Amino acid sequence: MFIMPDFIHNPEEWTVWLLGSEFHDTATIDMLVQRTRYSREDILNSVGVLERMKAIRVNRNARNAVIIDSIALVPNGKKMYKELMLRSGQS
Q1: pLDDT digits (tens, 9 = 90+) for 46-88
Q2: What's the CA gap between 35 and 22, in Å, rounded?
Q3: Which of 4, 48, 50, 69 could form a disulfide with 55 if both were Cys (CB 3.0 to 4.6 A apart)?
Q4: Helix/strand/coil for 69
Q5: From edge to edge, which strands make up the β-sheet containing 56-60?
Q6: Cα 86 to chain centroid, rounded
Q7: How far apart (Å, rounded) are the C-alpha atoms in residues 40 and 63?
Q8: pTM to 2 decimal places
Q9: What is d(CA 1, CA 35) in angstroms, rounded to the nearest whole number?
């Protein structure tokens, strides 16, 4: 079972952390569900929050815009990742 690190305070921070540290800035929803063990709905809620914060780019399917192909960190998200790195002590 994967456990959220102690320095991460919410699912949105964990998503940013995973994108920056494990997935090289881009991941699919399924990758995040598998890694976090959160429900698909919970991951989609976090993605919505991060998209509104302008921390990620949501790459939608060309045929059906409801389907998310992947998400990726953008400059605000990379800044959040750097702040999480400092908090983790891995700077």
Answers
A1: 999 999 999 999 999 999 989 999 999 999 999 999 999 999 9
A2: 10
A3: 50
A4: strand
A5: 26-27, 68-73, 56-60
A6: 18
A7: 21
A8: 0.91
A9: 9
Tokens linked to 76: 């605000």
Q: What are the boundaries of each domain within the chain?
A: 11-88
First to last CA, the chain: 26
Q: Which two tokens stand for residue 6?
A: 């102690």
Over residues 14-36, the mean pLDDT reads 95
58-75 in b/e form (b: 16+ CB < 10 A) is eeeeeeeeeebebbebee
Beta strands in the chain (DSSP E): 26-27, 56-60, 68-73
